[in-house]
Amino acid sequence: MTIIGLAIVIAFIVFSTAKLKWHPFLVLVLAAFLTAFFYGMPLPKIADTVGTGFGGILGSIGLVIVFGTIIGLVMERTGAAVVMAESVIKVLGERFPTLTMSVIGAIVSIPVFCDSGYVILNSLKETLAKRLKVSSIAMSVALATGLYATHNFVPPTPGPIAAAGNLGLADNLGLVIVMGLVVSVPACLAGWLWANRFVHEQPQGEGAAGQAAEGAAPSASGAGAEAADAADRARYGQMPSPLMAFMPIVLPIALICIGSVAAFPSRPLGSGLLFTAAAFLGKPLCALLIGFLFSLLLIRGEDRTERISALITQGLVLAAPILLITGAGGAFGAVIKETPVGSYLGHTLSSLGLGVFMPFVVAAALKTAQGSSTVSLVTTSTLVAPLMASIGLDSEMGRLLCVMAIGAGAMTVSHANDSYFWVVTQFSRMSVAQALRAQTAATAVQGIVAILFIWLLSLVLL
To answer: What CA–CA distances, in Å, run from 262 to 21, 259, 280, 410, 461?
Structure first.
């Protein structure tokens, strides 16, 4: 009966989000109550457990998610993301256009949601594709997979932050960032190599014929691309300098990493004032607050005060659903910990010796079924949190690799029930069949390569 109850709850989550289209926040809260009732939790204890789980996870990472979301929005609206992309092009050059596009996506998606990042960089991608006479399909897949990699692995993107919080790593985001960047490399390379399979293929969706006609006249298409690029830059107004564009994301990441180094048992920064300052500024909340304040410097113009207020309001609106889903995931996880399902699954799974493959499989199943990477990250991390000891991951490094394994599963695979799939499909003018071969298959390759790399890391580090 123990495993039957869990199967019912997971089926409810998948059916409600994928088929009924209910909001994940409501589904996770209902799943928490359904689990509590099924396993006979005392009635007076149910509401307290749900409330404590909800508030506990938000108390540790709620403000971090808010500041991270606002930073991403400000960088999107001020053109800082475009400046970052252009800076990468200057460094890498135009010799390897698909690789350059993949690197641009990976950098921009650290602060900016992958779907927003794709929309922002679409005109830049099209301009480069025409200028360098490279298939826009290959460039689209390279950009999309680059964005997708860091979106699933590297904080301050909300999904990895929530997973880290659920697995007890909220105060060690520096390690999560470093490991996320490491794991993102093979994921990006896998997406880039898959994108190169389409260097001679043209879009087959709506608007593709018109695009092909434009391509028949190189000078006209080049002029059109330059005009579109100029129009995009004009709507941002005065663009920030590269230093200012990178600062809101590089500075908090650097502070978090320094704080993590300062906390090493060897105490490399000593135990005096330098250690105290590094430990304080390296707290994710303090680091993201500083990044948020720097991001406000990107907003210029006579109506600067009004724009700051408007962007903060919009950022809070964007963060609200993420906070609710994360909190509901914490409530669900708290109930799971109070039931016998954790110990039962722990004994069962430990005998199978799956290790990091277990959270990967769970996350991949949830992602494929209901479409949201964030929901997959949150739900899977709450499910596996009580099982860390049983599957051999009950150490700081084990939990870190578990977050990465969940991230790899949460990108496997993006298809028709994922909004990101449709963003890439429509902006790239691909047909659905073409997008399944290019984008969906690319995310499957990324996820498999990433989990194999994580497994190899586990053999060395655990």
So the answer is: 45, 5, 10, 31, 21
